[in-house]
Amino acid sequence: MVNKWCSLSFQCAPNSPSFPLTFGDLMKHLLLVLTMLSLSTMAWTQETFPVNGVHNQRHLVHAFVGAKVYVSPQRSIDQGVLLVKDGKVHAIGEGLSVPEGAVVHDCKGRVIYPSFIDLYAGLNVEKKDKKKKGPTEKNTSGNWNPAIHPEFEFEPVFPFDEKKVDDWLASGIGVVQLHERDGIMRGSSALLRFGLHTPNLAMIEQRASQHFSFHKGSSTNDYPSSHIGAIALFRQTLYDAQWYATTKDKKEFNPSLEALNNSVRTNRPFLFELRHPLSLRNVDMIEEEFGLSFIVKATGKEYLLEPERLRGQRLIVPLAFPKALDVSDPYVARSVALDELKHWEAAPYNTKALLKNGAELVLTRDTLPSAAIFLKHLRKVHETGVSHDSLLAMLTTIPASWLKVEGITGTLRAGDAADFFIANEAFTAADFRVSAHWSNGQLVYEKHYLDLSMAGTYNLVIDSVDFTLKLKEIKKEKWIASAERKTDGVSFKTQVDMERSLLQITLKNDSLDALIRLSGKVSFGGTVWDGTGQRNDGSWFNWAGIKDRKSGKEKEAKNNEQDSTLHAEPSIWYPNMAFGFDTLPVAQEYVITNAVVWTCADTGKLERSDVWVKDGKIKAVGRDMLYPDGLKRIDAKGRHLTPGIIDEHSHIAIRGGVNEWAQASSAEVRISDAVDPWNVQIYRHLAGGVTAAQLLHGSANPIGGQSALIKMKWGETPDAIFIDGADGFIKFALGENVKRSNSRDPKGRFPLTRMGVEQSFVDAFTRAQEYQASKASAPEETKGRRKPTPEPNSTTRTDLELEALVEILEQERFISCHSYVQSEILMLMRVAERFGFRVNTFTHILEGYKVAQEMKEHGVTGSTFSDWWAYKFEVNDAIPYNAALMSKVGVNTAINSDDAEMGRRLNQEAAKAIKYGGVSEEEALKMVTINPAKALHLDDRMGSIEPGKDADLVLWSAHPLSVYSHAEMTFIEGRKFYDIRHQEDLLKRNAEERARIVQKMLEDPSKKKKTAVPDHVDEYHCDTVLEDYWNK
Amino acid sequence: MTRLFIVTLLLIGSMTYAQVPTPSETYAGRMLIQYATVHIGNGEVLQNGLVEVQNGEISRVADASKSRVNAADYDTVINADGAHLYPGFILMDSRLGLTEIGAVRATHDYDETGDFLPNVRSAPAFNTESKIIPTVRANGVLMAQVAPTGGRVSGKAAVMHLDGWSWEDATILSDEGIYLNWPRRYRHTGWWGEPGSVKPNKKYDDEVEEVYSFFKEAKAYSKAGDPEEKNLRLDAMSAVFSGDARVYIRVNAAKDILDVVQFIRALDLPKSAVVGGAEAHLTAIPLKENNIPVVIDRVHKLPKQIDAHVHEPYALAGMLRKAGIEVAFSTSGDMEAMISRNLPFQVGTAVHHGMEYEDAIASLTLTPAKLLGVDSLYGSIEPGKRATLFLSEGDALDIPTNKLCFALIEGRFIDLNNHQKMLYEKFARKHGIEP
């Protein structure tokens, strides 16, 4: 039996939810059917289709006899008999009798597998169709943002490119899931069989799963312009959908939200495409926030993630591994990032590591260009220690169960669809080849391979002359052959073509002007050849050949060797790059003795004193204390100990942009969604004595995004580097950046003047107040639960932007505002006062010295650059005396960086407050320690050396405010994260690791290596606007 | 007759409410500066020095403890006990006077359009009214090479006093050298506001070829005698081949530097320098063998490679000096003009990371003066040289101790006041704080 067209949505997928088909759907299907009627030239019978000619149903049995058949990964039958009838497995077993009238296929010595299922097949199988519209062009969306189109349904355009499909079938993959890889909410996919040329035969499941990503794709809307924005849009859409599902007064029909709710209600699998392993954390957070569960298409680098993150994940693992780099030039070799080198070696071990950590996996060929590469990589994964059966499950039963099509495909039990392929050997063998692929009981792919076992020496008698002919090896399905005449050893240029069991041989010698053309057949497993030939004059002769039994074989061994580039399992560092730790530092109890201790507290600067550290905290500060026996001592004689430096304004270790600039307010975005603990600037900041920082959104819009407060815990997981229990902060901005004065293309986004900037704030907080009131008047059960919840308020739509603004009104979130000139500084304080809250910090605040009195009265911190100016018109009046003046007036004053380079020498920047304005050296140091701690509401835990505080300490080689000084050791919570002496070891280890891998890359046999480029770290500033982020 | 004199002089300066201080006349009298630590500029130091200045010229330099002077012979005697006397620091490859505000294009006069622009001259664009300049000299930077940055060959650099009524007045030596931006093998796409990825530059070979052919043709032109038609570009190059102008080549990557060394040899350029030189330590041997000096673009920057030593840029100068390569300093890059006031501290950082102190002072004074061809009159505190020098209360290379008592440019007491100090004083008074 064949699939019925109508069964697409109804009968064929018993486990999937049924959908009410809309009239539009029906029309669409009808049109498709009509199109197919006119195009179809298939010989296959199609139950609902009229036939041009005589009725042609064939209810024949095909019997596949003698193969090793994998019914499932758990069960294989050695001398199996597989009976196929009407598209299904009729019966299967050992020694089954073959019914009378069956078509018998002799499969002795062969292996039969269920077709592999690829849930993430690359889209390149479709022929280019210029008329086909993508989701954003189609504009079906009811959503304001074109990157959101969950209602889009993938419609394959048949027929596919046959050559490409054949290559997929040759890799064993017969069932694929296809979708449009475009947008953030991408719509649904189709699960179908390859090789069948009409949808009614091919389709297994329409709307098989819903697809998602954090990449906006072809959408031309400016929003989102960053990773953080994409996440915010994702979350907001889910809140909108929840509201849409429950609200009583819908004012619009929104197909996007309808489709999304429909897919949730019907438990359709959700599939998420990851492009950076750290984004898995973002996906997990969304799962938790909305009670959803995603299958995740992984990147291949997930082995770098923490085991807790991986446990229980359902991951689609790509089998693409990086190519060896061309590192023949030593200058180039030294400039490639070490993590890139290490990944090249580690990539094949990814699957093994993920399994070990408790993830459930399926495999995908994704966009790998050829079956040969896919199979080679599959074997590599096997070589790392993943068993054949386990791999088979990842290619068959697990993907089937994830898409709820177990019992339809993925196994070969009686009643299952006959989706299988026949191969010469197990797929883990080096010369594994698919010789036939059957889909839905029909032969869709067949290939007669040259048989490598024929390689060897043949003694030929051609027209009574003896020749020796050698078949050496197969390249691109062609024999490499040579021949010579035995009598005189004259060699002939030889070409041997084989088609099934027929031979065609050409022998040529130009100097003798000889051309011999032979035609013939092979028999006895290829060992005996015979046939006829034609002389130059057109007359015919006979020829024959026989194989020398001793020849052959040795070539195969050589081929295997060439294939293998799997290296020993490499070690993983924390993070897995230059300066990563072999093991993470742990908190110890110790005393740092005889240091000059700058407490940055009332106790001031203490000569020759000790600091006792226990359980990550400062236990005591003093002199001549009684220490328990054996307490570890760090002798700091002649050195200076200060609290860890805190940078109020940093943009390091953020990926995918710091500015969600497309709208005047982006209060909904969170920098914490984009923190990158694998960024080398964290290590460099440790080397500059920095232990904590506020990672801020940029300054492209009046209301930016929510900050992340981190400690420089190099090597730690993304969750562990945040400061626990810290207050929430948010970036605001004023002046030229907000007005987009210096943008090449301001695009008319409001505001363009300082007048408009004020109105942006007034408008935002007015709306926030109204929102606050509306939430407060919510029904009793949701009252007071202003925080986003999965059970939405039925009347007020949860708005993530306004949620953040209400937090400000309620003094639960605090503003750090990028600011330059006095007018706007006063303006924002007045707006805040009008709405009943206070600005927490003015950052940069270059004209703070002009309005220091007003700032003091308002109670705001001023966190400034030490001496930057002249880079914009609005910094004309910036002066390096700013910090001194603000501080002397009584404003809590900090010095910040906004720059990865300056961030690592903030001690020098603090010294400038001494030079410009005569601040005392202790006060100057406070500007980068306790004062920023106060600004960040962390002064009860850090910023000074006092008992009970976090042991965030820096040991300096000399006076900490001098250029003749550097950090020797940096501690966070008692753990030594940086030690300049240890750095020497790390540099040596890095260099050795680099040399070792480069050597291996040089030895790598692959011919086309990837061009190496120097490593590169994105550096962000306030103004960084990633207009081309999505094109990278 | 003491330091009090200086204080009075400075106060007079600050009472002139001009935005940019007024140049003063050369001090006409005979002046003695005694008991200071005198950093000669040639690598030597006098712990207790004696320096005599007359008519804008240094007339005597000696060890105060071994010399006898009669205070009555001088119109001014400055007892500088505990203070440090330095030759005016010289900043290389600078945009001072050529730019004012980074984001305001109207204030940019350094990046001309076109590819090969050797005839473009920086000196006539130099703005003596720049508000940035007084903030820079207040930290001891008293001379600068100002250079254009555009195109492949950017144009001609000039050596300027950071004081003067007009560019002509401020010019020490115009058309001193020619700047060449060497092609890059790898391009960092995007700009600092929108960082992109690193990509191999497929046109690198072609671009290098263009440089070679331009220089070859210019060399031929310079030898050809009277041209049929005067070509301003080629004409401007002749000073390069006669040895009257140095070719400054901006280049950073090691392999690119090797190309530059080959280029210098192939064209037989009499005077050249590598500018930038981020990876010059990897090519130290060929640089040394060919006597090519390096102008380090800035010390305060991030290492180029992720797995480089965190202090690599700080240590570069020391490594090059140990390899015997002449070094001078620039502060080019982001916010280059305003950041040039931090030149002393950048070099101080280099001292902490491997440079010998007096050698570092030489790299700020006599070495650049030699590169610029003005060492007969500038770059050190030696008899016969012009009195461009300054006195600092403490070590001028460290931030808290860099406090200028006075500075002379060609024997003129320059006003150390500036726009920023004036704002400071104005608002300090508003807040009732003693500035």
Question: Mind explaining what this structure looks like?
Answer:
The complex is a heterodimer of chains A (1032) and B (435). With 1032 residues, chain A is α/β, with parallel strands linked by helices. Among the domains of chain A are: 116-300 and 313-408, Metal-dependent hydrolases (TIM Barrel), CATH 3.20.20.140; 452-562, Quinohemoprotein amine dehydrogenase alpha subunit, domain 2 (Lipocalin, Beta Barrel), CATH 2.40.128.120; 588-643 and 943-973, Roll (Urease, subunit C, domain 1); 645-753 and 808-941, TIM Barrel, CATH 3.20.20.140. Chain A contains 26 helices and 45 strands. In chain A, strands 1, 2, 3, 4, 5, 17, 18 and 19 form an 8-stranded mixed β-sheet that branches. In chain A, α17 crosses α18 and α17 packs parallel to α19 (822-834). The longest helix of chain A has 24 residues, at 980-1003. Mean pLDDT of chain A is 88; it is low at 1-45, 555-564 and 782-793. Chain B is α/β, with parallel strands linked by helices and 435 residues long. Helix content of chain B is 29%, strand content 25%. Chain B has 13 helices and 18 strands. Chain B has helices at residues 3-15, 132-137, 167-170, 204-223, 232-242, 254-267, 284-289, 312-322, 336-339, 343-352, 357-364, 366-372, 419-430; strands at residues 30-39, 45-54, 57-63, 76-79, 84-87, 89-94, 141-146, 153-161, 171-181, 186-191, 194-200, 246-251, 272-276, 294-296, 327-329, 389-392, 404-409, 412-413. In chain B, the strands form 3 sheets. In chain B, strands 1, 2, 3, 4, 5, 16, 17 and 18 form an 8-stranded mixed β-sheet that branches. An 8-stranded mixed β-sheet of chain B has the order 6-7-8-9-12-13-14-15, sandwiched between helices. A two-stranded antiparallel sheet of chain B has the order 10-11. The longest helix of chain B has 20 residues, at 204-223. Chain B starts with a helix and ends in a 5-residue tail after the last helix. Chains A and B meet through α9, α16, α21, α22 and α23 of A and β10, β11, α10 and α13 of B.
